[in-house]
Every structure is written in C-alpha cells, then in structure tokens.
Specification:
By secondary structure, the protein is mostly beta strands. It has no helices and eleven strands.
Amino acid sequence: QVQLVESGGGLVQPGGSLRLSCAASGRTFSGYAMGWFRQAPGKEREFVAVISRGGDNTYYAEFVKGRFTISRNNAKSTVYLQMNSLEPEDTATYYCGASPAGPPTAPGRYEYWGQGTQVTVSS
C-alpha cells in the first residue's frame, strides 16, 4: 500500500501563489502516476493535474491551464503542485492520488489518496 500526505495549503489573497507537496511512502513511488484533485464544499471531487510515473507526461484541467504546474521528484518520493494566479474559485481541499496506471484523469482510477490540504483564496 501507499501512504500519501499533502502539505502546503493555506490562506492566500487572489492573485497569490502557493506550492503544495505530497509525500509518499510504503511502496515504490516511481511505480505510480500521481494526480492532484480538489473538492470544494458541496461539489464533487474534480481533476486538476496528473503526471506520469517518470514525469515525462503531464495533463491539466482546462481551468488551471497556464496557472498550475505539476512536477515530481522520485528520489524524494514527492509530487508538487505549483499554483499561481490563484482565484477564489480555486478554494477547495486539494488531494493527491496514486494510480498504478495512466496517467488517468478519472478519480476512480486512483488506488490511494491522501487526507487533503486546505487551500483558501480570499481577500
């Protein structure tokens, strides 16, 4: 199994930046595609970004195009989400997930999930 722990969330003003981290342990990190999802109050979990096992392929949701960047450091067993130009609509709990295949954009394709980290964008 894989244990995932997100960190880096917080309160930022519109237009600000935040970098989220997701540290993995338990199994070989490089064997999984890693994705970021988010869930706002009253909403379903939605896809944000995903990166392939080796980090050579990335996919993003349209609403974060040009603003967010996903990356991974397999030596550190960590995946990152750099978020720039944050908007109030980005407010949500952000989760990282691990998938043995992919990189998928559907939540059902992910085998493991972290507890989430809260991101609040407000003035």
